[in-house]
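Bench log. Compound arrived from synthesis this morning; before running ITC I wanted a structural hypothesis for how zinc ion sits in the protein. Inputs:
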Amino acid sequence: MTLGMVLILAMAVFAGAAGLAEAGQQNPNRTDGEIQILPVQGNIYMLVGAGANITVSVGFDGTLLVDTGSAQMTDKVMATIKQLAVMVTGSTYPPSPCVGLRCPGGAGSGAFNQWGWSSPAINTIIASRGPVKPIRNIINTSVDPDHTGGNAKIAKAGVTFTGGNVARGPGGSGESAEVWAFETVLNRMTDTKAPEAGWPTDTYYTGSYKWNGFFNGEGIELFHVPGAHTDGDTMVYFRYSDVISAGDVLSMVGYPVIDVAKGGSIQGTIDGLNKILEIAIPQFRSQGGTYIIPGHGRLCDEGDVANYRNMVVKIRDRIDDMIKSDMTLQQIKAAKPTLDYDGRYGSPDAFIEAVHRGLTQKR
Ligand SMILES: [Zn+2]
């Protein structure tokens, strides 16, 4: 399969998504049961159809995933990742640090490779087809089963880079891929006695965490937003590819899901959306530039996130006004503070309840 074919495939995904949108908002998560690949930018690809969106970095260091989808889709996810890795890194000339569609000169044709400065033409003569590198890292954006369901199986199939060149290849000395998450994700999994094979192997507890070392030619930064969708949310920023994987702080298929029982809050959700806007730089009039992969639904740019943030803040303010006029939750729901957005985002009840709870708890 050529990268041109991937593009055609990606356009088919867009066309399919548009068709679904027209068909109605009843089940915005529905798919054809297959995993689709959308090339995003730089090293980053988006896998659609596994429950939550999966973000994939593919390159000469191996594969890194943000989220693993739901458990019942894992086999298809792994087959798709393998196909993608072969397509991107199994070229007959060595990949440059930039292996995405937007690289200068096209995929894998960057001027610099491990043999120095060279041309793709020379490389096709002197190089042989490279082995496909394993899955080395997984990052979970939250504890939700449609984001972590594939952890156990995919981590077991992967190999961790444990240091030195010995491990830098398939079948290296690592036993399985590292699974990263904010520390409350691990706490929750141990508390609920989730199967240990799916637990994070590495956690962080600070507001942000810079990985020590590049992966596929770029720095990767984890951001924790306290109390947004849950109390264990992570957003992942790929600094060279310029892509943010936002997790469930951002959704294109509904109002924010604020899981109050797991420590989510309206203020944290707004803070998270603002954090994305703080990082993202649009190419032109809030379009393009930094791309943002939401937890669910289509790919976004800064304009999409700004619209979503504005919607959330507007509804928060309306509900706040109603609370100040001594309206009960029942009366607030009856007044339909989300009416102008319901056609786009569906049933607002859970969202209104979470906002109401967040605003009344403060007083
Ligand atoms: Zn989700």
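What the model suggests: The radius of gyration is 21 Å. The first helix runs from residue 3 to 23.
ITC booked for Thursday regardless.
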